[in-house]
Design brief:
Length: 176
């Protein structure tokens, strides 16, 4: 049984082995075609850890006419699946152990227009990492609630009271 640190280091090394120019075939668009004769596609991925969850983020550029195609979302999801397949294979080669990733929730895809010709595509999906038993779930709501409360408290002070409080005044109309 591998420790949490060994699992995270193995996944990070597997992701690092996918640098642009490597011989590894990850399933990205930049690997298709001739790099000298064809138009280069800017795409890549990164991994993040949120407790026992591995978040894979994929970013690419696409033409607007490609976004309108019926199978566009399916092709983005296919790229994400190829990335997961690559990570599992590389992890096995690096550590000798297998990596278990279970999909958590749905894939999220965001397409933003950059010009009349190009768009920016960002996609992400979360996977639960098998074998991580010593980690705690990250509660995203608690940090957000604390920030919301702090902002509401600050806004409740009003413009004059906030300045007075910062300066250490009791009453802003009387001065220091």
């Amino acid at each position: 049984m591998a420790s949490v640190l060994e699992i995270i280091q193995g996944i990070n090394q597997a992701a690092a082995n996918a640098y642009d120019g490597s011989e590894a075939k990850v399933g990205l668009q930049r690997e298709e075609g001739d790099p000298i004769l064809d138009r280069r596609v800017m795409d890549g991925f990164k991994v993040r850890f949120i407790g026992p969850i591995l978040r894979i983020s994929y970013q690419s550029e696409a033409r607007i006419q490609d976004v309108k195609d019926k199978g566009f979302e399916d092709s983005i999801i296919a790229h994400l699946k190829e990335i997961v397949k690559f990570l599992k294979k590389e992890y096995k080669a690096i550590t000798g152990n297998s990596l278990t990733l279970k999909l958590e929730g749905d894939h999220k895809i965001l397409v933003q227009r950059m010009s009349n010709y190009r768009t920016d595509v960002q996609a992400q999906c979360d996977y639960r990492i098998g074998g991580l038993t010593d980690t705690d779930e990250v509660k995203s709501g608690s940090e957000k609630e604390n920030l919301d409360k702090a902002v509401k408290d600050w806004l409740a002070l009003g413009p004059g009271k906030a300045r007075a409080r910062k300066a250490g005044w009791n009453d802003p109309s009387k001065g220091k």
